[in-house]
């Protein structure tokens, strides 16, 4: 029983680390959302960070399931899951919105290329 309690405490500490990643990503998105337009570098940075952020959910899900199994009162843990999931999905939607809002990159000569074209190395110039 004491081992289960220690294990639960260890898992809760790990969950706290994941929750801090939500806070960090939220702060980053708030900063980007204040920009009228994202630069090409900001957009690539956002896409990179979003990929890492997106990988947090499966880790949380497994960790939270383990905590719920060890918990004496699963109702409290379900509330933790719901709060995390709501914040995670809200941040994911915000990131997708910012990426979508910045679909086009302005190149040095003022022409525009689709982000997919730039990342694949194919530049299609339009004016």
Structural class by sheet pairing and helices: mainly alpha
Main sheet attributes: strand count, strand direction, barrel closure: 2 strands, antiparallel
Instruction: Give the percentage of residues in beta strands.
Output: under 5%
Distance between the termini: 69 Å
Helix content: over 70%
CA-based shape: elongated
Order of helices and strands: HHHHEEH
Task: Characterize the structure shown.
- The protein is mainly alpha-helical.
- The protein has one domain.
- Helices cover 75% and strands 5% of the residues.
- It contains 5 helices and 2 strands, in the order ααααββα.
- The chain has helices at 2-33, 40-54, 56-70, 74-101, 115-119; strands spanning 104-106, 112-114.
- Strands 1-2 form a two-stranded antiparallel ribbon.
- Helix 1 (2-33) runs antiparallel to helix 3.
- It is elongated, with a radius of gyration of 20 Å.
- It starts with a helix and ends in an 8-residue tail after the last helix.
- Mean pLDDT is 85; it is low at 105-109, 111-119 and 121-127.
Give a summary of the structure in a few sentences.
It is built from five helices and two strands. It is mainly alpha-helical.
Main features:
127 residues, mainly alpha
Describe the secondary-structure layout:
Blueprint lengths: L1 H32 L6 H15 L1 H15 L3 H28 L2 E3 L5 E3 H5 L8
Antiparallel strand pairs: 1-2
Helix pairs in contact: 1-2, 1-3, 1-4, 2-4, 3-4
């Amino acid at each position: 029983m004491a081992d289960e309690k220690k294990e639960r405490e260890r898992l809760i500490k790990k969950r706290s680390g994941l929750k801090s990643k939500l806070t960090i990503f939220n702060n980053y998105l708030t900063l980007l959302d204040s920009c009228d337009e994202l630069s090409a570098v900001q957009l690539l940075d956002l896409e990179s960070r979003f990929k890492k952020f997106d990988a947090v959910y499966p880790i949380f899900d497994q960790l939270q399931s383990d905590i719920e199994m060890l918990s004496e009162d699963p109702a409290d843990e379900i509330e933790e899951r719901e709060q995390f999931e709501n914040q995670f999905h809200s941040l994911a939607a915000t990131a997708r919105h910012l990426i979508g809002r910045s679909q086009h990159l302005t190149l040095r000569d003022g022409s525009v290329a689709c982000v997919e074209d730039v990342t694949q190395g194919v530049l299609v110039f339009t004016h």
